[in-house]
Amino acid sequence: MQVLKRLFNFYIQASIHVAFAVVCLYLLVAQWLNILPDKNYIFFLFGGTVCCYNFIKYGVEAKKYRIDKNDNFKYIVFFSSIVLVITIIFAFRLPKEMYLYLVLFSVISALYALPFLPSSKNLRSLGGLKIFLVALVWAGLTVWVPYVSIAYLELTQVILVFLQVYVLVLILFVPFEIRDLKHDPVELRTIPQRFGSKQTKKLGYILIALFVILAIGRNHQPFYEIVVMTGILAFVIWKTNEENRKFFASFWIEGIPIVFYLMSKLWAYV
Fold first, then answer.
1. How far is 176 from 140, CA to CA, in rounded Å?
2. Is the CB of residue 146 less than 8 Å from the CB of residue 27?
3. Across all residues in the chain, what is the average pLDDT?
4. How far is it, in rounded angstroms, from Cα 269 to Cα 16?
5. 189 Rama sector, left if φ>0, alpha if ψ -120 to 50, beta otherwise
6. pTM here?
7. Burial class (CB in 10 A: 0-12, 13-18, 19+), 146
8. Cβ neighbours of residue 174 under 8 Å, at least 6 residues apart?
């Protein structure tokens, strides 16, 4: 039992779970656009997510995510190093059309973590921008980078899917913002710090309504899929509070894109 617990903790702490979530979001978008996913990009996206998240968690935000260095830390460093090498290999296999956009979103990710202005440490320290920046990067890497260069896709359709994914990620980050309310420095001025948990949850419901409008507006997503997704999102916002258990956000909320993708695959065979 202890072995399984340690493996599960490593799975979460090493950002493997969130990497699977990002990949599943990419695969879900591929189904929405009826496009065959790029296998090289899948491996690149997985590895890039692992490396980026671990760098931020155990570098930039080390105080919040501190773990026992005699426990999983050294294994996470070793794992991340191997994944980084593999990610670089797959980066060279990607279509050249992707590179410009990859650089753009990589720069945004870097500025999120690294200092760039004398008056602020990084983009994350500029008020409540955190979730909007993360949503931009997630939507950019799962929609814009892989699909905007495909000639036969309508740009309007890509933009609508981009906006839908952007809003979806904003919704998923509402529980994280509320969870971190007790730990975030006051000067960070996150949305829950400014408006409180209740108002932040109301924002989550407004975003869910916007997600539904975008989904219906695209007219390429089955109505029953929209209903189920909306129900799941509304339920997790309703259940969110400052006292949620440890893995409520880091496992269940981050796992929602995985659930959505698996459901869409199941419905395809029904």
1. 20
2. no
3. 86
4. 28
5. left
6. 0.90
7. buried
8. 131, 200, 201, 203, 204, 207, 237, 240
**Residue 211 corresponds to which tokens in the numbers above?**
């997600």
The closest alpha carbon to 46, from 84, 72, 100, 6, belongs to 84
Closest C-alpha to 196, from 240, 159, 134, 229: 240
Q: Which two tokens stand for residue 58?
A: 């155990």
User: So what's the architecture of 2-268 in CATH?
Assistant: Orthogonal Bundle (1.10)
> In Å, what is the CA distance from 137 to each residue of 53, 106, 164, 202, 269?
12, 8, 13, 24, 32
- The residues spanned by each domain of the chain are 2-268
First and final C-alpha spacing in the chain: 36
CB-based contact 255:21 (threshold 8 Å) = yes
pLDDT tens by residue, 207-252: 999 999 999 988 778 888 999 999 999 999 999 988 777 788 889 9
Orientation angle between helical segments 197-218 and 223-239, nearest 10 degrees: 170
